[in-house]
Prior knowledge:
Shape: elongated
Order of helices and strands: HHEHHEEHEEEHHEEEHEEEEHH
Strand content: 15-25%
Radius of gyration: 22 Å
Oligomer: single chain
Amino acid sequence: MSLVASIMKSLNRSHFKTLLIMERLHLRYEYIPVEVLAKHARANTDDLLKDLDELHRLGLVSRRKQEYLGYSLKQYGRDALALKYLVDHGVLDAVGLKIAVGKEADVYDGLSPSGHRVAVKFHRVGRQSFRQTRRLRDYGEHHSWYKQSCIAARREYQALELLYASGVKAPKPVAYNRHVDVMEVIIGDPLYVVTDLPNPFETFSRVIDNVKRAYRDASIIHADLSEFNVIVKPDFEVMIIDWPQWVPRTHVRGSEYLKRDVTNICNFFKRRFGLNVDVEGILRDIKG
């Protein structure tokens, strides 16, 4: 991603205009004919081909010549469009090193124009299993992996707004565009790597308290909670991350998802720290 950020400095207004037009035309074409691109760009074909050759050299578009010469946006091209929007709207000033990798997202260190550190999360839904993602999430069978990634970014931003306003320990949302979320950066270790806690039951209780607050005050169920998306900060406070698959409390399978979330956390603390807790009692308490 730092490579894409550096490449953006060499792109001019005409390059970004071409990328934007390609994004729109992908609704109708997998590989967009050069003649169609030229018509929508109202550009001379030779000048357009120079831009496309440069974008292809930089790895932002792919090229195919069979029945016709066509171009398609690559992942980095879509990343560049999202970053361009966030920079132009005063959200981002720089993107740095990768700080986290998940099954369906990459997270990078970033800086706001005011110099504050932020986390820049690029959703890559379907990278591991496109069919499984469509089956487990209500994203629709007809959506491409990229469309699913955009939906995931929007959903996570919506969840974080509700959670942060309700006092749940989750990252503060900053902005989103396309398949990219910008949020508060969290310093700490994922729960699954933590082997020593001064008071395991206190940490467990903090996680459950946040599950309860999300359920009662924000009307949200995480629906994919485990030791992999709980962060333990240096002061042993906890943060719950990764919310794109959340469901409302009223969801037809809400009770099932809530029980699975709580059971996952209880099983981890029992396995790692020897805690024995009553899952059903905790669920009754959460639901009030």
